[in-house]
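Notes to self after the call with IL:
- keep both proteins in one doc
- input above output, always
- annotate only the second one for now

Protein 1:
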Amino acid sequence: MRRVAGIDVGGTFTDLLLTEQDGAGVTVRLAKVPTSIANQAVGVVKAIEAAGVSPAELDLIIHGTTATTNAVLERKVAKVGLITTEGFRDVLELGRRTRPRAYGMTGTFEPLIERPFRREVAERMNAQGQVVTPLDEAAVKREAEALAAAGCEAIVVHFLHSYANPAHELRAGEIVRSVWPNDYVTLGHALLSEYREYERGTTASVNAAVQPILDRYVQRLQGDLSAKGFGRDLLVMNGNGGTVPATVVAREAAKTVMSGPASGVMAAAATLAQSGLTNAITYDMGGTSTDVALIHGGIPEVSAELTIDYGLPIHLPMVDVRTVGAGGGSIASVNAAGMLQVGPHSAGSEPGPICYGRGGTRPTITDANLVLGRLDPDRLTAVQAKVSLADIRAIFERDLAKPLGMSIEEAAAAVIRLGNVHMSGAIRMVSLSRGYDPRDFVLFAFGGAGPLHAVALARELGIPEVLVPARPGLTNALGCLVADLRQDRVNTVNKPLDQVDMDEVKRLMTAQREGALAVVAAEAAEIEETVVIHGADMQFRGQTHLIRVPMASPDVTREEIQAAFEAAYFHRFQVRLPEIRAVLVNLVTSVIGRRRAFPLASLLDASARAADVAGAVIGERQVHADGRWWPAKVYARDALQVGATITGPAIVQQIDATTVIEPGAVATVDAIGNLRVKA
């Protein structure tokens, strides 16, 4: 018996999918427990135990975590010092020509590294990698000792143009390590060998700021698991959709930012592959936020221009997920102007929505769904003390309906509609803004709350079909199970394409491939196939933003790169610029170690299926939609057989999510258990 657990820690719940495989086939166990905010490791262990096994019985754990993301967003990070080129200590604070608020010269920004801990030393490389000023080695040692004495837990060495020649950074790193009290030393070029000193510096500062936090968390988790007998492999999800061994994950801790959202996108890609689909917009609505991403041609879009918070760009390859502060726990209120507002504040898991009975007193999107009959008050997950529907309606009347001059139902419907507006905007960002028509995609809806809103969103955006996977509330945990091992390498060239040395291109890409292959090969026991993907980040001269262009191999010709870039640019902007020179900015190589395919049909419990659709009906209740109440049948998701068809209005319930089939929509169960809804 081989047991593998995928565990995802979200802002509200910690989800687990456990597979047990032997000669007879694959069986699945599920668990969903409240996230332990103070120490996520506690929730992870509780989820394993809730699945009815002990850690000692597990052969492999793949873990997606929000530890680093939350640390940066909440600014609960380690104290970091910086050693940089003389005259450039304020690069991290000056940034680009942006401001915290789009309108008006207001708002403040605090870099992750405070100014007193940003120290300068004499050294200078030019953009061609030639030494202009030699490195002052004595100054490096002196400043490192001063930063350690000042209480800095981690340190960054970030010199100008180190991507072109890292010699000074490498030597400074040796000196720093000789006096630094721990291993939390980040060299800017080692993490990101790209031009743009600001983005390279912020990426390095994020890495240093979360390195001790992630390292302590992983060690604590491994210790808790070991104490209960677990002695096998622990893999951690990276933001690029791949996994890395827990023993080395803290070295490049910044790569785990967006780990949780990326796992859901990887699960979507695996589900699409087994469903015969290639294009989807993924829509993950949880308790705290909503994440959307795009899968085109079966491959998730990856970007190296993520900005996690104002002034904190992280230029590492990551699944391009856009996040909005609209989740089931998003709080609805009437602002000072008398307008309804939904989010960005969330009730989270503590105290949570009113209906969870944990002390929440402010109306949320989840509570609005309950008021409108879209959720069953008797089947909510993790309710601590039951709160009556009458009490929830009274709060809606007091806080929203009366101030807005609406009925309770109208106020609740307005909360849902406004939340949908926020989410549809994020979907447009990942599709229309890149030249993709949403009508050419399916909406892949998951998360505990995603299926509640998906059909309404699809109608608003003109998306013809919604796909709700078999276990929507546990899809991120499934993503951990199906995620491949992945390594990405980036090197800056930053020259007009007609001046690029193509032999140097071949040398760099070959080195990228070999270095990434060596890391992936370390987990050879989990890999069935290795895939290498080459690409280039390009732009026309004078432009700022980059476009990723696929490349067939390191032996690609100059003419092939030019043609691929022009085609990609035209697809994105529908314009050709033959009079402007193309610039080859970065070379990119991704090596993906494909893990064993997960049989998604095993998520279904065949023994629970009813003989026909009527046998899956477990009740009927009134549901509010399109401005009126409708009688709607309620179906048990596990009882729906393959091929079953449902016409809305209807409600489909399961342990991890509820799906609303809007009036007039038609849903069908496909061969692997997905609910396919024609919106």
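Protein 2 (the one to annotate):
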Amino acid sequence: RVELRGEANPVPDCFTPVACHTATFDVTTETCVETQEPDGTACDPGNACIQGAMCTAGRCKGTERVCDDGNACTTDVCNPLDGCTSVPAPPCPGDGKCQVGACDPKVGCTLAKAPDGTFCGPERGCDAADVCLDGACQRRDPPDNFTCAPASPCQGPGKCKGAVCERPAATAVVPDWTYDAASNGEALHDLLVGPTGDVTLVGFFVPALLDAAGPVPVRASVSGRRCMLWNDRLLCMDLPLSGQVSLLDRVTGSPRWTFDLATARPDFAQGLTTLFMARLGVMQPDRLAALFEAYPAGTSRDTLCRQYFLVVLDAFGGMVSAQALQDPLLAECNHPHPYGVASDAVGDLYVAFGQTQNVGAPLYPGAPTLLMAFSQDGVPRWRKTEAFAAGELAIVNGILLNERSTQALRTQDGQPVGSQTFPRGLGRAVATSAHVIPSPSEDDTVGEWRLEGYALPGLTPSWTYGFQGWPGPVAPEVRLASWTTWPGQSPETVVLGTGMDAKGPMLFAVSAKDGSEVFQCPVSNAATPAQFLELGPDSVVMMDGATTCGECDPPYAYSQARFRRFPIPGLKPAEEPWPGTFGGPGHDHHEDPVRGR
């Protein structure tokens, strides 16, 4: 006689599957088994712009919602969270021959005569000038008081007096709003500017301060270590460390959704000492890359060993995919860290991992660099190891740029782009559709700071702008802006930055097309160039007074910086593939395609 005994245990829950997949527990293998839903099964695409979604080969697919408000002078877009919206369309282009762009709500872009007196040719002096008259370009001897030089943010237009173009003296740009974190004892060291000009100040391990430039500062109801803008909302990482990411209303701070990795994938979290957010990266309006970091099982919080998980989320915080990242470089216990995260115009993701040279934040990257590429759904594409130190990434027109490298790589396979190398590290580069512009740098051979443009696609040297007479330094942080130099002419893309001339801090703008100077303006009540800056509509917000490095991660951690907003009427963020959002993991690092009609 054999006595049999058994114990009845409940069937364990399986982790939440992604769309078009189900997960059930197999009692034979005692594991969760994931299977695809049959084709034609209705599914939730996690995107309000997708209609009639059904499962197809394990993917949730549907048709795009068509948005049209019937007005040809607006751009109709679909927000994955809110549906159809309309925004003002970009300015209509002129023909460059005394015809300026105009817009008719029924037919769209048209041409109209440029205002009389608009420059139209190479002659722009006070004895002879090529100007528009009744829609045609003609050479004339301008009269006294003729506008011969454009206005700038700090200087009125030049006027002809005889043969001389006289200009008023330049005055310093003055802020209309200041927030000094040091005076309030707050470790705020990063900023985000919303599309309406609202300002969000962020600190490492302190809550976000929302709409600080408004009449009443608003505290976030869900705290975030670091934040970024996505779908017109504030996306914040966890605080305290808990492996969460939340999407918050930009003004009130109330959460739209919160994703918790330990809840969605308890199999990932099992045995880990601590699970927390490492980096965020925008991939598409309905695709977000969330890199989670953890101390491996059996280690304490003082370990330098790390484990990483890449999760792709949709616009509503739903999980598209999740995977543990594995590589020999990531297995080394030297605090490997994702120092660079960026995505291209089709939504593919690129991550740069490197070892950390110190203990405790802020983190200083070392070499070598592990580059990893993924599709917009998180499927691995390629990986390679490079000898340079890890750093922030930028992407333009299929070219991958690492701030500490002198070689551009192809996003297709990570291989070098031709034989062209840069004379020094790229730094926090920005890029238009025609040029890559590395950070300003000092040329030791001539003792001069300079800004250089390299033509795409071959990255050949195109132009150089020298900061003559400037002792420096010139700040590495630059942005691309849209600026109309002459009334009646189309806006041009300029490189905007700050530096020190012989008299003090200056705000400068240089043409991204040919490196010509657009304007220079003194900055009031400043001792150094801006350590960080962002553009808003008709404004620039600068940060200074930070006490830690800007090239570490997180940049300027624990600093109590000063923030100031300077009104610059007519200045707009540029409509370019890479607008320049370097400086911190809170910024989206996404290559947007050039938007048109």
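Annotation: Residues 373 and 382 are 5 Å apart (CA to CA). Helices lie at 261-264, 266-269, 328-331.
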